[in-house]
Amino acid sequence: MTLPNGDTNSVADDSGDDLDDTSSVGSGSNADNSRSGTPTPRRKGRNKRKRKKVPPPQKMGYKFVCYLKEDHGQPIFGVQFNQYLRDGQPLVFATAGNNRVSVYQCIEDGPIKLLQCYSDPDPEENFYTVAWSYDTETGRPILAAAGSRGVIRIFSLATMQCVKHFIGHGQAINELKFHPRDPNLLLSVSKDHALRMWNIRTDILVASFGGVEAHRDEVLSADIDVEGRCIVSCGMDHSLKIWKLTTDTMLSTISQSYTFNPSRSVRPFPTVQQNFPDFSTRDIHRNYVDCVRWLGRFILSKSCENTIVCWKPGLLNQAELKHNDTNVTIIQKFDYKECEIWFMRFALDYWQKVLAVGNQLGRTFVWDLDISDPSQARCSTLIHPKCVAPIRQTAISRNGNILITVCDDATIWRWDRVAQPLGAPACGTVD
Amino acid sequence: MPQKKKDGSGGDKGVNEVHADHELFLQAFEKPTQIYRYLRSRNVLSPVFLQRTLYYMRGRMSRSHKNRMPFKLDTLLDKVTQKSERQSERAASYLNIVFTGFHDDKLEGVSGDVARVETFIVKMCHKKRKESSAPLMQVSVGTQDVSINPMSSGGEGPSATLTIPTHNFTVTNGHQVKSYVLVFKVSLLHDQENAGEPVAKRRRVSRSSSQDSVDPNLQVSSLHNHNNNNNGGSGPGSEGGGMRNDGGPNSGNGGGGGVGWSYCGELVMFDRHGRCLLTAGHYELMLEPPGASQPSNKASPKKNASWESIDTLKLDGMFTNIPMLKFTLNWNSENSNTALERPRLRPLKPLDLVLANSTSTKPKPQGVASPEAPQLVLYQFVYNNNSRQQTEARRDFHCPWCSLNCMALYSLLKHLKLCHARFSFTYVPHPKGARIDVSLNECYDGSYAGNPQDLVATPAGFAFSRSGPTRRTPTTSVLVCRPKRPKPSLSEFLEQDDDFDLPRSYILGHNRLYHHTMTCLPIQPHELDEDSEGEHDSEWVRQKTQMMIDDFSDVNEGEKELMKMWNLHVMKYNFVGDSQIPLACSMFLESHGVELLHKNLYRNFVLHMISLHNFGLIGTGIVYRCVLQLQAMMQDPSLQKQLASGWEEQRRSAKRLFPAITTVKQEQLRHSSAHHNHSSSSSSSSSSSSSSWLSESKSSPTKNDGDKKCCVQ
């Protein structure tokens, strides 16, 4: 693969001529950012943000292609690829920032093209997260977005409309996730200490996970495992909690949510109020836990402690969850640098072979997980001289070839995988 | 309009003064005026209500229900017979169709050629029960040659006229015909000299009409064309022999592809209710090329209705590329009119003009008070704390904001007052007509007054999105209101100091949105009557109580079991006073007594009674009565057997696991409190065989070894 922009020094000459002057605005200042107040005592790394410190560009698993900047200039908090599009179909991703939800397409080996942009009528809205699904009847793509107002909006990209919205959360929504097996079930994670599961086809609130033994503070992130059996959630109370979806009540309520007819019933839908997680721990992190993903039977989670922890509940060989289990087994820690603010999300690709996270100085750390021994995971660091603002979230295309990162200065960065094995000649940041 | 008028007013003032004055004027009136302008165009495009149905807009109502008064049921028959007679009169008239051209963009090169149009009347008869489809009758009524792609307005080229006597499709001609459809079939035809040319040349034309896909068939079809043309040529007056059965009913839909008709299109003349849908006018009929799949068009559009945005519809492509047959249609008593008037596009009128003209057909405005209406209406705009005013005069009763012709002064005032409530209007009689003082309504409540359900409906409902048909919210308030209205009089608009009656709200109750307490979801209107939110004894409290009892480490399993049952019982019935404890005990036994015995918790319960007694909550009599009540339950033979077997098994397993159990137990017994002994002595009859170990055991027979271990330790 030989491309004109093969090295990082050629910046975005083809894509961002008009942006060059504005890109210096992204000074990485977090003062005005509502999402950055992290109770971390350490404040180092501030003065390290000098270009001199940037190591010379090296050959890496991903090479910079282009970047662009959304004109609102506010942080972009969420980015997601539409993983339902297969090989050969366009590579489409969506971003959430300010009161905008934008849909982009990655042109092959080239720039990023803006397809659609939705703007909330309320200028106060600040979208934090997006999630993709599809209409089970027509197969058309569906995009869900939510943010500071706590309203979930469902966009139909084919008709270019906000077709539905769900209100109910008492506070901001920090993350949205669709059920991997049922594209109609949407999990929302809120500042109101609770998680909710919605059936977006029938507009029914299926379950609410919150209460006496649930999170004691904002829930920041959650994930449903590939088989759709368990939710893992985490939040500002430093805890991680696992909720089973395979209980009899959950299964029957989910199926009932498809058949329930609100206009025929005097009583509201019997929403499951789940107060008791099936597993809970505070032993993994000592600070806000702001991102969590299932990795098979393991869990990847991060706090603002410069490490992503791969762990599992219970003892190493224990298969079942126990409610009062105090054991956790830590499998591996992926360390990186200078990421001590919260609301920084890592991403896995669809096949869970690549792990990527950005830090507050605009660097991206990528691990190749496609190895037999987790301790062998190799890390490469992606650096661009103009990418200096905190990277809020990363997204990796279904085949792992494109990495998108979004920053606090409203920039979107595209990195393409190069042919050589990932991370082999990269700068080794593995401890 | 209010803004305009100020330009003329301040002639003699200084420029600055005028400017400041203008600013003040705009400040006061600009915003509401903009809002009402917007509402005006919205109401023109999709009206929420019709002005003419308002009681004070009688002048705009053209219907007078005069003949409702003398209506008699018996006259119905007469009316129908009269009507049918009139219809038979109409049978003598004719339907004239003047074809002005056949347009197809794909046939660029053949402009000037002729296409042959054959017209059929297809009669759809009533379906009998056993028939799978409605019987069709197809009658050819004529064949005409129409020029292809004629120049827009020129008179050149043949224009063919088709005349169909109306008796062909009178409804009452004996057959049970449901509806009549005009079917036009257009076949491409060349000049006479062209017809003799080799097939290849004709093929060129056919290909250009997008038939490439069926190339092998093409030659056949064009040959067929040729034959048909000959037929048509031989009998130019073929309507005389009109019943040429062209390939049977089959040719109606599927025939186009194989038989040789190139395009066809249809028009419904009468719908199933016998109403004539073809009014006189210029028609442009979209024709379908033969390749088009007919069955898909027949599918009911309702079945797979879906939302389409303008973007996905691709309307322009639909109308530009499709072949079109243009003709003029009229109903006439004469046989034919050859005078051909080609359609001319009339420029669209601007909206204001439409608004102004639409209602001005009856230029007879009448004030209610004085029939000979004053023609002058002076609007006096008062602003800046009533210190300034500007005047605008109008000579009619059009509303200045919505251009609505109110026809009368009373209607105008009523309309202004009700539809433009952001202003307040005061009527002042004026020698030349009327004066209306307009000022800003300080008391206007601009808050949302609609259905609160509309605010949360998803998708945002009728109140906000008007992009298409939306389902109204399920709340409907049926109002039957016949208030006593005072006689319409202009005096109600005069300045009133004291008694202004606030509009009463006819709907009772709150116009608010409520939310469920647990889920924060909005309460649907049909859920309002049911209180779904019980606050005490919720499931999570029960679960939490049990979990907390389980967490005790100094209590054995049997005691935990009894504590759970008792606590949940007390929570459920919410006993609050000491005096209720005896009642609680007996109710507990009634509801949980059998379960308690099944779990082998007899002794635990008796112990519980004793401790209640020790704390002074119940007297000895109550203890005695409760134990008797429980023992009465034990008389059930099946239960007895189970109790005995449970105890036996317990003993055996205890002995097997802990051979030294007796000694340990006795040691423990010494430490245990006195009332344990007391309880064991009070439990007499059925537990006579129990050992001292059992007197301490709180475990149910189903509890396994682990449980026992913990009660022994």
TrEMBL record, chain A:
Pfam families: WD40 (PF00400)
Stored InterPro entries: PcG_WD-repeat (IPR051243), WD40/YVTN_repeat-like_dom_sf (IPR015943), WD40_repeat_CS (IPR019775), WD40_repeat_dom_sf (IPR036322), WD40_rpt (IPR001680)
Subcellular location: Nucleus
Listed Gene3D superfamilies: YVTN repeat-like/Quinoprotein amine dehydrogenase
WD repeat start and end residues: 166-208, 212-253
GO CC terms, sorted: nucleus
Bias (Basic residues): 41-54
UniProt key word Transcription regulation: yes
Annotated spans, Disordered: 1-58
Chief location bin: nucleus
Transcription regulation in keyword set: yes
Keywords for this protein: Nucleus, Repeat, Repressor, Transcription, Transcription regulation, WD repeat
Similarity comment text for this entry: Belongs to the WD repeat ESC family.
Protein name: Polycomb protein esc
TrEMBL record, chain B:
GO biological process entries: chromatin organization
GO molecular function: chromatin DNA binding; zinc ion binding
Span of domain Polycomb protein VEFS-Box: 504-620
Annotated Polycomb protein SUZ12-like zinc finger domain residues: 376-443
Membrane-spanning parts: none
Full protein name: Polycomb protein SUZ12
Taxonomic classification: Eukaryota, Metazoa, Ecdysozoa, Arthropoda, Crustacea
Domain of life: Eukaryota
Compositional bias ranges of the Basic and acidic residues kind: 704-713
Annotated spans, Disordered: 194-253, 666-713
GO CC, alphabetical: ESC/E(Z) complex; RSC-type complex
Naturally occurring in which organism (per UniProt): Petrolisthes manimaculis
InterPro entries per the UniProt record, alphabetical: Polycomb_protein_VEFS-Box (IPR019135), Znf_SUZ12 (IPR057540)
Presence of keyword Amino-acid biosynthesis: no
